[in-house]
């Protein structure tokens, strides 16, 4: 049985990828490594935590000794690296933790992967490293777009991207870098735009919208993202970057209004607030390169957002525990005593 290390597997995208891999590949043993910071939630994995091909590892990726000991204990074939501080607003308030996790943590993992001679190191990044686009609908980010990050978060991710590239060019480490557009779907942490809007609308609370709400993002369903990373891991050309986008450009205001309508409420719940510092105007990805590899998104935004709203309605207990903080006790109950 081959061993796959997934870092950040208690987060939103990494968590969905862990579940996807455990269910799809019984011949792989999936190791979910996560420090369980505020956004790390293990309750989402209750349906897989007793499966023979799944293990959870409570480690800080920036802890060189702990990571080294893990790689000595387990022979990993692949590393898929999601673990990162990812909330732009938090990076503006406290950039240091983003540098430690996203840059130093990545470098620690790269050293371990190099020593272990893994078959491939897949680094999951973001389109935010490219900076911003104008509102010209004919312009898109490609893999050749220069990196020009505009927030401490995106700067830390750009730095980690360059480290991954350097380890390939200098040491020959087999790598791929993926850069995705905004994800949405099940288990999305409630501080993000879509789940925040859903939870607030359900509670008849005001929904904050930055500035005039005209900032544009390309939305990608998280399960489409998982299938793309799976393809890159197995079939991506070593050393290449792959952009992953959903062909779903929407303004933030359009996203909020779509959710409000789906839940039968009115625009009176919208509250425009002071714009975020350094708020990029538009992100849009040209995914031609990964589509040539054989990938296509399954979800358009209309279908995906309807499914996502239904999921949050059916799983109210999960996100209410996230908001209350009760989810953070799950590790102590289920794992710390083992």
From TrEMBL:
Cited InterPro entries: dTDP_Gluc_deHydtase, NAD(P)-bd_dom, NAD(P)-bd_dom_sf
Residue ranges constituting the NAD(P)-binding domain according to the UniProt record: 5-308
Catalysis performed (reactions): dTDP-alpha-D-glucose = dTDP-4-dehydro-6-deoxy-alpha-D-glucose + H2O
Cofactors: NAD(+)
GO molecular function terms listed in the Swiss-Prot or TrEMBL record: dTDP-glucose 4,6-dehydratase activity
Record-linked SUPFAM superfamilies: NAD(P)-binding Rossmann-fold domains
EC number: 4.2.1.46
Pfam families, sorted: GDP_Man_Dehyd
The keyword Lyase appears for this protein: yes
Keywords attached to this entry: Lyase, NAD
Signal peptide per UniProt: none
Homology family: Belongs to the NAD(P)-dependent epimerase/dehydratase family. dTDP-glucose dehydratase subfamily.
PANTHER family assigned: DTDP-D-GLUCOSE 4,6-DEHYDRATASE-RELATED (PTHR43000)
Name of the protein described by the UniProt record: dTDP-glucose 4,6-dehydratase
Species assigned in the record: Planococcus wigleyi
Gene responsible for this protein: rfbB
């Amino acid at each position: 049985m081959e061993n796959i290390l997934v870092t950040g597997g208690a987060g939103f995208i990494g968590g969905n990828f862990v579940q996807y891999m455990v269910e799809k590949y019984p011949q792989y043993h999936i190791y979910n490594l996560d420090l369980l910071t505020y956004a790390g939630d293990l309750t989402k994995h209750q349906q897989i935590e007793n499966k023979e091909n799944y293990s959870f590892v409570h480690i800080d990726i920036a802890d060189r000794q702990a990571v080294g000991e893990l790689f000595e204990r387990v022979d990993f074939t692949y590393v898929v690296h999601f673990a990162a501080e990812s909330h732009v607003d938090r990076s503006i308030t406290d950039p240091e933790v983003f540098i430690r996790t996203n840059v130093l943590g990545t470098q620690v993992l790269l050293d371990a992967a190099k020593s272990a001679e893994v078959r491939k190191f897949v680094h999951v990044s973001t389109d935010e490293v490219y900076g911003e686009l104008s509102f010209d609908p004919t312009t898109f980010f490609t893999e050749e777009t220069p990196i020009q990050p505009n927030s401490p978060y995106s700067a830390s991710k750009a730095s980690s991207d360059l480290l991954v590239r350097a380890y390939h060019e200098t040491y020959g480490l087999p790598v791929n870098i993926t850069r995705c557009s905004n994800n949405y779907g099940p288990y999305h942490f409630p501080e993000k735009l879509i789940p925040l809007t859903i939870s607030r609308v359900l509670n008849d609370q005001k929904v904050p919208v930055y500035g005039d709400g005209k900032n544009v993002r390309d939305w990608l369903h998280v399960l489409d993202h998982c299938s793309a990373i799976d393809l890159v891991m197995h079939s991506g050309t070593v050393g290449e970057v792959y952009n992953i986008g959903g062909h779903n450009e929407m303004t933030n205001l359009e996203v909020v209004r779509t959710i409000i309508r789906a839940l039968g409420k009115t625009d009176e719940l919208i509250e425009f607030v002071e714009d975020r510092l350094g708020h990029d105007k538009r992100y849009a990805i040209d995914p031609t390169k990964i589509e040539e590899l054989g990938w296509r998104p399954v979800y358009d935004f209309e279908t995906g957002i309807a499914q996502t709203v239904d999921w949050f309605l059916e799983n109210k207990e999960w996100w209410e525990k996230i908001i209350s903080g009760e989810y953070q006790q799950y590790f102590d109950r289920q794992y710390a005593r083992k």
